[in-house]
Amino acid sequence: xxxxxxxxxxxxxxxxxxxxxxxxxxxxxxxxxxxxxxxxxxxxxxxxxxxxxxxxxxxxxxxxxxxxxxxxxxxxxxxxxxxxxxxxxxxxxxxxxxxxxxxxxxxxxxxxxxxxxxxxxxxxxxxxxxxxxxxxxxxxxxxxxxxxxxxxxxxxxxxxxxxxxxxxxxxxxxxx
Length: 176
Description:
Elements lengths: L8 E6 L5 H16 L3 E4 L5 H11 L4 E5 L13 E4 L7 H7 L3 E4 L3 H12 L4 E4 L4 E3 L2 E3 L3 E2 L3 H27 L1
Parallel strand pairs: 1-2, 1-5, 2-3, 3-4, 5-6, 6-9
Antiparallel strand pairs: 7-8
């Protein structure tokens, strides 16, 4: 199977009104992704979403914002490609499904729902100071923890590529 000519897309999720530390982390994640030629997709609004897009744009990257409404001008000023959905929070599924891996930074309940959708779809989630979950009192280790923005980007790229290889291998077994 030939290699894809399409750029790698990584989703970055997080709260609209996070603390300053999360904004700094998101901006650095955006810069690191852009330096590696990776397209950033996010919810397109404020907070972590704006910071990751700002970082990506500062490093010459491309950004996509999956918006909850029908107005392209509701996107933060660093979104290159606004995708209007009119779906409100239901657009969270599109945000996570567009990326080959997800980096979660901080976040509120919208972020929690995006993490849940990603994990249910078996998409790798890299966590940077974000939610943790437990099942029946046992810590769930499904979220891959990162120690800093560079570590988050490296882990997301590695996880996305590993996932793609598994999918290609499964497809080739189906067709052979």
